[in-house]
Amino acid sequence: MASSRKMVEFFYDIVSPYSWMAFEVLCRYKNVWNIDLKFKPAYLGGVMHGSGNRPPGMVPNKFHYMTKDLERVSGYFGVPLYPPSDVFEAMFEKGTLNAMRFVTAVAEKEKEGDVLVERVSRELWKRIWSTDQDVTQPASLTEAGLKAGLSASELEEILTLSKSQPIKDKLKSVTQEALDYQCFGFPFTVCHVNGKAELFFGSDRFELMAHCIGEKWVGPHPDKPTSKM
Ligand code: GSH
């Protein structure tokens, strides 16, 4: 019997490399699993602050482990991840507040559907986590937006919108939504199953997620299954 359609909310920030992995996997599965995937661009700095957590990269042993682990997950998920030359500067000094306000503005402008949010997020991830490019300056955000298929005039409007109070408030409220689920890090996926929210932290919980929503996990490339579970 076909399972009923589940709503799946994906909270992420492009500062998070593990979120990129999970994002690409969910994009591959969104038409394979019987789900309505909803992107929830949020701010990881706000989640860390609000939950009393601290970025794992701030703990030297975790940073060392993650450097190796990210190399492995990049190969496993088939996502071209190459850490920026100065990870601390990119993640913590420059940060992604402007970038996530920009994505929030794209979401606001798009209203129906998530196609542009998906493409813009991917272009921003590529910049910070693949080609070591800036994601803080208006010119950088414009370049990502153009690659994602937006026009120069649309981007001008989105950039202005991204600096507005309603967009700042929207990013805060989506971040708060994640915190209301007791989120402490990204990626954070909320699957609505039979009126209950099933919460998943990380890009390494897909097998369990599939089990909870009554779907099959066949590896990171559902078009080329590696497992017959
Ligand atoms: N095991 C998870 C995975 O494989 O995806 C790790 C995910 C992870 O480390 N996420 C970072 C985070 O928010 C952001 S890139 N961590 C919070 C924490 O570890 O408490």
Any descriptors?
single chain; 229 residues; alpha+beta; Glutaredoxin; 10 helices; 53% helix; globular; binds glutathione; glutathione transferase activity; HCCAis_GSTk; EC 2.5.1.18; glutathione peroxidase activity; transferase
Describe the model.
Its EC number is 2.5.1.18. Keywords: Transferase. It catalyses: RX + glutathione = an S-substituted glutathione + a halide anion + H(+). One of its GO terms (molecular function) is glutathione peroxidase activity. Helix 1 links the parallel strand 1 (6-12) and strand 2. It is globular and about 45 Å long. Helix content is 53%, strand content 11%. It has a four-stranded mixed beta sheet with strand order 2-1-3-4, with helices on both faces. It has a single domain, classed as Glutaredoxin. With 229 residues, the chain is an alpha+beta fold. Bound molecules: glutathione.
